[in-house]
């Protein structure tokens, strides 16, 4: 861990706020002090994924607790995001560090051009010595606003920027083999695979009640990153310095897989399918076993109202989702393509129809 150069650090709302729910300037400053120390002299490049926008916006809007309805959550996020970034900007200015705000949604990163631009922006901010502060764009997000307090977002950003390490900061100093508030429970120092947590009962609620994440979402994020070849440290915010220095703290998740194409990880874990294509048995075998593109001849039916470029599920005849991909046609175009060869379609409809419905480069297998 000590040799990690590019690191993504994720901090949750409960680590940045007061008991009443507002931003705690002292806690923000303490975190920034740690990040600035490890950035100095180019020792490390750090991307900060920070929750807290909704929590920061509660008090200014006269809200005593996080609202349940989406409209008020988004209103709080709109007010709070400005306050959150202003606090980081002021805190980083004490160290001569510039802050770059990056707001993302799943759509920004599953589509080719958006994904490329997000990666390019983060790389450029790092090369210019700025601290990227990433958050989900809660003001425009829909289902994504309940995305796990940015834990999964942090795992995907770590993959996007080719990070050497992901550090998940919480109000708990690691994964325990039981309720950490009870005597006799022990910290799990290392996780090498799912079997290491098979005996652990993990609750979902955080302490502060201002975020949406808990230990469940953090472990899920750690598994996503580890499966993509990125080691993960899950610890408390007060131990951030130890994590960045490579000292023993929290729970260390060993990488369990190899890196895949960035965009495919986003497609698998962050996209929301806008429809579904049911395939015949031959097409299922071709797509899943031989990793081929999906052609019109293999489609049995279509569901949903999507446009070209949207993510869709690919299902077998039993309705089980076997893959997810970015479709090249609008939903209304597909019925006349079903079961027909691309050569036939090109003769009848023109050369624009002599192409895949989902290209293999835009496709991720869910059940290999």
Automatic annotation (TrEMBL):
Chief location of this protein within or outside the cell: cytoplasm
Keywords: Amino-acid biosynthesis, ATP-binding, Cytoplasm, Kinase, Nucleotide-binding, Proline biosynthesis, Transferase
Family: Belongs to the glutamate 5-kinase family.
Classification via PROSITE patterns: GLUTAMATE_5_KINASE, PUA
Matches recorded under Pfam families: AA_kinase, PUA
Cleavable signal peptide: none
HAMAP family documented for this protein: ProB
Binding residues annotated for substrate, in chain numbering: 51, 138, 150
Keyword 4Fe-4S included in the entry's annotation: no
PANTHER family assigned: GLUTAMATE 5-KINASE, ISOPENTENYL PHOSPHATE KINASE
Pathway as given in its UniProt record: Amino-acid biosynthesis; L-proline biosynthesis; L-glutamate 5-semialdehyde from L-glutamate: step 1/2
Summary of the function given for this chain in its UniProt record: Catalyzes the transfer of a phosphate group to glutamate to form L-glutamate 5-phosphate.
Cellular compartment(s): Cytoplasm
Enzyme Commission no: 2.7.2.11
Domain of life where this protein originates: Bacteria
Catalytic activity: L-glutamate + ATP = L-glutamyl 5-phosphate + ADP
InterPro entries: AceGlu_kinase-like_sf, Asp/Glu/Uridylate_kinase, G5K_ProB, Glu/AcGlu_kinase, Glu_5kinase, Glu_5kinase/COase_Synthase, Glutamate_5-kinase_CS, PUA
Entry binding sites for ATP: 10, 170-171, 212-218
Protein name per Swiss-Prot or TrEMBL: Glutamate 5-kinase
Phylogenetic classification of the source organism: Bacteria, Bacillati, Actinomycetota, Actinomycetes, Kitasatosporales
Domain PUA span(s) in chain numbering: 275-354
